[in-house]
Amino acid sequence: MARNTKPASKLQRRLIPSLIVAIALAPIVAAVVWYVNIDVWRPASTVNHGHLITPPRVVESAPLPLLGGGTLPADWFKRGWSLVYAGTPACPPRCKKALYMTRQIRLALGAEMNRVQRLFIVTDHPQQAAALRRAHPDLAVAYADGPQGRAFLAQFLDDHALGARIYLVDPRGRLMMSYPADTDPTGILADLRRLLKYSHIG
User: Fold this and answer.
1) What dihedral do alpha carbons 82, 85, 89, 95 form, nearest 10°?
2) Distance of CA 162 to CAs 64, 78, 120, 143, 167, Å?
3) What single-letter DSSP state applies at residue 162?
4) Residue 37: pLDDT above 70?
5) What are the tens digits of pLDDT across the range 134-168?
6) Measured distance CA(65)–CA(70) in Å, rounded
7) Looking at the whole model, is its pTM more than 0.90?
């Protein structure tokens, strides 16, 4: 039997190149659509409320003097998750609000609160040290004065002003996230709860 050698129709000749182009472009179009809609499709469990620091930076500890005596231990950041705030000795209203917020966040963790510690880095001896200790008995207060203190403080601040942000350090001593000092505390609390749930360290 003779094989059918009928030439392709004009329509077929037009469709074939278009089909090839469509197949080639499909992955690109899919990637663009995914990127544009990433915030819509991303599961809620992967959304962070703060600024994610990528890659995380290891914080080099320093033996800074502590309020009440002693120095900041070399392994302090490896004792748990750390909420860090840096401010001035006067601790103006924004500073007081940030310290109060981190205290309430820690308390709200309930049974998990002991996995979280707080550090207030201050550029000199706080003006109301006694009141600070009464209001925040769990708060470590370190003096970041002199070249060593300024170098330690610079690891957190980057381009941000003193007192502008709250920082989160993981139990491996890595600076992971930061939040505006006037942020909604429920966002920090949600991030911490998620981290504590899935973390086997700290």
Assistant:
1) -130
2) 18, 24, 12, 14, 12
3) T
4) no
5) 999 999 999 998 899 999 999 998 778 899 999 99
6) 6
7) no
